[in-house]
Amino acid sequence: MTIGEAIRAAAQQLAATSDTARLDAELLMAHLEGVSRSELLLYRMREPAPPGFAALVERRARHEPVAYITGRQEFYGLTLKVTPATLIPRGDSETLVEAALALKPDGGRVLDLGTGSGALLLAVLAHSGASQGVGLDRSEAALEVARSNAETLGLRPQARFVAGDWHAPGWADDLGTFDLILCNPPYVEAGAVLDRQVEEFEPSSALFAGPEGLDDYRVLIPQLRALMNAGAGAILEIGANQGDAVSALAEAAGFMSELRRDLAGRARALVLE
Description:
Elements: H1 3-14, H2 21-33, H3 37-44, H4 53-61, H5 66-70, E1 72-75, E2 78-81, H6 94-103, E3 109-113, H7 119-127, E4 132-137, H8 140-152, E5 159-163, E6 178-183, H9 196-199, H10 215-224, E7 228-237, H11 243-252, E8 257-261, E9 267-272
Parallel strand pairs: 3-4, 3-6, 4-5, 6-7
Antiparallel strand pairs: 1-2, 7-9, 8-9
Helix pairs in contact: 1-2, 1-4, 2-3, 2-4, 6-7, 10-11
């Protein structure tokens, strides 16, 4: 069987699992071949299919995300390592990076709360004049992934990753103050029905935040001011229906807020100043 034939067969097998079955099959094959998807499609389709492809397809058929199978994900022009210890960076979250670059094109000193793979912090450091960034996460396994990504991207001198939990007393005592704060906190309401590849594989501690999905905002937003330099801004990712509720929490804490929408037109981020 050629690579092209194997991809076609895999796409048929994955059609019941994925809305992007053909793309999934191509990405898995490119990963196995060690080439880009474009190189695979242009030059490799008539070559013999490699052993091991069927095993990868079976993993995807069991709803395991492609990013966890391949160990990497593209985000804002960066190729990032991901593992089951981190959420998979999504294109929707690029809205926060766009808002950050518009708000603080020179970056300054940046804090990323709940950094996970380091996606938000590293994207801002790579595309702005930011001189230094700190990524905080309560998961040591996630911090190791973020440090690895910073090293691979040549951003380790600018990025520091530390353990911390904004629910714990004194968590921010040694962080200092910042010109820009980024945060993609848990914001899914308890009991929400999620896609199987999210519910069964991504870390629940990074997803769920109480019955309304607002628990982490209630804890975090009142603590932000003490971390912000004069003229600083904070950008929070939110759920599509949380704009009014999180704006009210921000206003109660003394912030002005402005909504940012993703490419699908859904509420995605709040800019606090």
